[in-house]
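A note from the maintainers: we've had questions about how concatenated examples are separated. There is no special marker in the raw files; a new sequence line simply starts the next protein. For clarity in this README we add a label.
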Amino acid sequence: MLNFLRPQPTFTESQAQRSLRLMAWEGLASGAMFSLGSGGIMAAYALALGANNLQVGVLAALPFVSQVIRVPAILLVERYRMRKAIGVPALVCTQLMWLPIGAVPFFLDTPGQPAVLLVIVFLALRGLFAPVWVTTSTSWMRDLIPQGSLAGYFSRRMAMVTGAMAVAGLAGSFFVPWWQGISSAGNEIFAFSFLLIAGVLTFGLMSPVLASRAVEPLMSLGRRSERSPLRTLLEPVRDPNYSQLLKFLFCWSLASNLAIPFFAVYMLKVLGLSLPVVIGLTVLGQFSNVLFVRVWGPFADRVGNKTVLSLSASLYMLVILGWIFTTHPERHILTMPLLVALHLLGGIAAAGVTLTVNTLALKVAPEGRGVPFSGMAGIATSLGSGVGPIIGGVLADFFSVRSLGLNLTWASPGGAVDLPALSIAGFDFLFGLAFLLGLLSLNLLVALREEGEIPRDVALSELMAAASPMARAVSSVPGLSLVTNFSYGYLRRIPGADVAIGVTAYQVAAATQAAVESAERGQAAGSDLARHVSEALGQSLEAVEDAGEHGWELAVHTTRGALHATDNVAEQVGRVTRGAVLGALRTLGDLRTVPEDLLRGVGHGALQGALEARRDPAAAAVEAAREAATELGISEAEATAAVAEGISSAVQAADDETAAAVQQALSQEPQLPE
């Protein structure tokens, strides 16, 4: 009768792909349900129940503190090796527990402490089941996903989940004030009750049904009989490399969750924003999360999850610090633009952190030990995420009646004027402490080793090669114009600012890569490939102001992106380079750009892209020079000289052996000057 809950020793590729789709849709349903009981909506519900800052922190901490249940869940899975039979019933209980949480106002007077405490109790009970599902499903999906596609699959799944959370959360935020506007006095709080109950009857029940239809692969026997339960749990801690990851996950989660759970409370209580505005800003962050998770996924597969985690975590710290400046000491004219920028950048950072934490925990784990190792990683993350909001709640109450001000006084014969230079109060202290602790936690990531990782500096050069003037091109993005008014050389020294600038430049290269791969799948000729590149680049530049002033940078990224595509298409570097060069020149040539700048960028980008994609750099450089020499309305000598200059600038960053090989190839090419 319950055979559908048993693992299958064999299954077809189509069954595996269908199961991955079902698990993706399950994530969508679970995400939609969770958005109705977390974030801004749960913060508003807690405030309506009469919760203080500490209780808000406890509510935010409970889903994470309860992750200690992963310990018995790991042992249960290791003993019975039936993840589906253990996980699906736990998922059913997890979703049904939202019913009593929403029903509390029907039985107790609100606002009131008994109602707050009962909601805390029910959330704690829900926490007994949710970690069991997370533990079983993570290992389950790892066995379904090919090793080289982990980041790509989780990025697509996370995009679906985030999109569902955005839609459901936004709909819920409009329902609450609508109900409160039509209900009688004293019944306003039932808006949250109806929201949670309706969510359970739709998304909550849909989630386990989808999961139950997916195939579970038979777990490897491993060395189960050789390990005691205690040894199984201590093995990840004793592994020198994995223990470094566990330390980072705990410290990072603690630091970031000192502040994150209180963003919504801060906007509702301190800034006085309405719930739809708060959820709307949250959705804005989720929107940027969905967009950039598709950037981080392929990028992580190429440069390593640790590197992307370092980049995105540092950007997140910059975002947390930025919340201090939303008041000075009250709301000001730049408060809303700054909130928009913070949510956009926060979504970008969260996409990278969430994606790479899960994938890194799986990838660094020894083969066949995914359940205990990833489970312990989840425990470390959850403990930090649980302790953080509780400490944050205590600190928020402590600093709520304290402030720090620094005033500058201008005295003149006509009188004295006080100019407030610094004003920190209440939650500002919390955000500042979170920023400092987050920076310290990033040092723990340095010692972690991941197979195939690329150093942060090298990845940054790929993410934003020549991003100094390119920073002006991203000034059309809300909030980034403030960043681009300063010298990029100084911005690089600010943790996270380098990533904020460079991610837009990377999008240009990614668009070109996608265009080349699309053309190659259709077996396009060289002229069609050039057309694909030209169209993709044109679409990428639609939202970029003053693109004509950045021809060199755009040519570099376009040609780089085309060469990256040779990782996945036929090894015809010359033809791909030819199409990319022609496409870039045709699009960028229409801008008010100096032709020689374009050609220098083409040469630089062709060589740099070939080196990054581990292709023949000499062939790419020579092919770029040949095509560029005949495409623009300048003499062949001028064109080839400009391309050679761009190639030389890229050669300077290469190792001696590569530089010598390229120089030798160029010296043998009669069309190029030595």
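[label: protein 2]
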Amino acid sequence: MGKRAVSVFFVFCLLMGIVSLRIVSLTTGEYAADASLNNTKSIEVSDERAPIYDCNGRLITNTQPLYFAAVKPTAKALSALSDVLDSGELETVKEKISKGYPAVVLVDTPNINCEDIQIIETVSRYSYNQPAAHLIGYTSSDGEGVAGLEKSFDKLLSANRRCLSAVFASDAQGRTLSGAQITQRIDSDYKSAGVYLTIDLEIQKIVEACMDSSGVGIGSVVVLDHETGAIRAMASRPVYDPSNVAGSLNAENSPFVNRALCAFAVGSVFKPAIAAAALEQGLSYNITYDCTGSIEVGGVEFGCYEHRAHGTVDMRGAIEKSCNSYFIYLAQKMDKESLVSTLSALGFGRGTELCSGIEASPGNLPQADSLDSPAAVANLSFGQGSLLATPLQIGAYMNTIASEGVYKEPFLIEKTVDAERENFAHEERAGEQVLSQETSEMLSVFLKSAVENGNGNGAKPDACTAAGKTATAQTGTFENGVELYNTWFAGWFPTDKPRYVVVVMKERGSGGASDCAPVFKKIADSLKTSGFLEE
């Protein structure tokens, strides 16, 4: 009985052992299958910095599509690639996949009809004809910010990234499994992180197109929002390609310089500032002067443009006809301390920091003690001599006249977002009343008349009214015995309900009326056509 019990127990244990072994075998087999499916090989396709956006949240960077072919190591895939790659690229891919390993290669098309190839779309940092290139700047080959906003916000843009990989199912040796699908994986995502500018991308594109079609090969344009002082567009020419910086290193005319933030001789576009200072000192706009084409002050003769005689003009006529002699005569009547104080309040002689590392030059505003001779005052009165100003400063001062005497500091950064959390937002600031409302309203009438009836007529838009002033500034620089000029037009539109202030500056120009006024007109009409101005 005891022996039989032992035998039964032995058989029972044997049976239970077989069952247990079967369970373990089945379980182990399923885990092995899962492990096999989970063996993958991934290849990084892109690692993108957080973008730079416009005021409406539209991408300024990270917009140019790039297509990568994720390729299984098959003859079929290699054959399909032979139609889209050159021989050198094809040989490189062939070398990789001949060992049974997958590859990823940049291609020019999103359409390759092959089941062993998966197209993965990503973006390049910069686009062809990258908008606002001088503001955006560029990165190094290692992806670090080197210039512009890329450098100013390098830490934020680098810390928030989108990493995209192609994923291939593979065996334990890393060789691709033939039947498995190629997938893509986002390892991290910048989501809404980035730098948000006041730039309006559509206005920026319009401005750049107008510059290029009008032959502004060396110069700049600035567009300010009248209501806030926000910079809606800022363009400089010549421009470099941020995707190929080396290609512009030896180019002529300094393509890396943002001329909108550099100081230049300004000429007659400065005359309304002198008129403003005169009116603020109580001098009458009815003061007249009989212009014969030149005037002698302190033993020095100063001429109007081409020594053209304007006859008897008052302040309105002098602005319409851009009469140097009138403003030289007017400035001699002014208190120098008060004159310089008003000009300083209008933004001349002080820089504007747009963000860390990007600042507009302060230019040069002569101080009262340097205006120690009638000739020095005369030079200042029509924007010559040692006076220098940036296109951005000219825009801010014109906006002050358009804003009933309220100076509004231009700004560029709307907000920054880090890891989906806003860590900076521009605070709206009350402008500073630097001119009386009466002075500004009077000058607005005169500047409208300069466009309607004066030598700024070429700036008159078809779409709306405008006010503004031309300039042809001497630089003191000669080439082949001929003096080079900076030419300008600065103003706003519509006149009575201002929306945008626009400054156009061209280096090596011939005249503000011929070079820059038509560009202003083209920008105004284009903005109207594009829906940026109310009916």
